[in-house]
Amino acid sequence: MASTSDIRNGMCLEMNGDIYSVVEFLHVKPGKGAAFVRTKLKSLTSGKVVDNTWPSGHKIDEVRVERRKFQYLYNDEMGYNFMDNDNFEQISLKEEMLERPNLLKEGAEIEVLFHAVKDIPLTAELPAHVTLKVTYTEPGVRGDTATNVTKPATVETGAEVKVPIFINEGDKIKIDTRTGEYLERVRD
Which CATH number among 1.10.10.10, 3.40.50.1980, 3.40.190.10, 2.40.50.140 corresponds to the domain 130-186? Predict the structure, then answer.
């Protein structure tokens, strides 16, 4: 049992029969009245984000989680299949458990959060950014790079990303996995 003073970003807690991860929190001490903690929580089962407020000192149920590294293998009708890098066991995760699965490339390493007591996977976290090759995009017009003009580009995983006009087929680009946006062109 923890209290609201123990809340931190990334902490997992159980509430209303569901497991949530703390996305944001703020300790508020108003000039009049009691202090409280305002949080933004993300459900690890449905992915829904909810706001919740607790009075300061309120007891909460913290869930112990373990982070394990897995390697992405393939996708089939059962879900997305991963292999544990330590013991070579394979697990399958549903698409809802992954944020932006269309950016997963075979062989990519991710972290899977497991419930420490029940040993069940809760959610998977992709790396902060991935480098992918552009497989299709319209050719850019020379001299049209002065403004922030973007065009759609398809990368090797099949995902579509808005890229600057100077990006061509065959270029490697870095993509932010949290937002799905283009970051930069990668030189070989």
Answer: 2.40.50.140
Cβ(21)–Cβ(39) below 8 Å: no
Cα angle 120, 87, 94 (rounded to 5 degrees) comes to 35
pLDDT tens, residue by residue, 132-150: 999 999 887 666 556 678 8
pLDDT at 164 over 70: yes
CATH 2.30.30.30 fits 2-62, yes or no: yes
What span, in angstroms and rounded, lies between the C-alpha atoms of 37 and 29?
9
Q: 165-169 contacts: CB < 8 A, separation 24 or more?
A: 165/140, 165/141, 166/140, 167/134, 167/137, 167/140, 168/134, 168/137, 168/139, 168/140, 169/134, 169/135, 169/136, 169/137
**pTM of the complete model:** 0.75
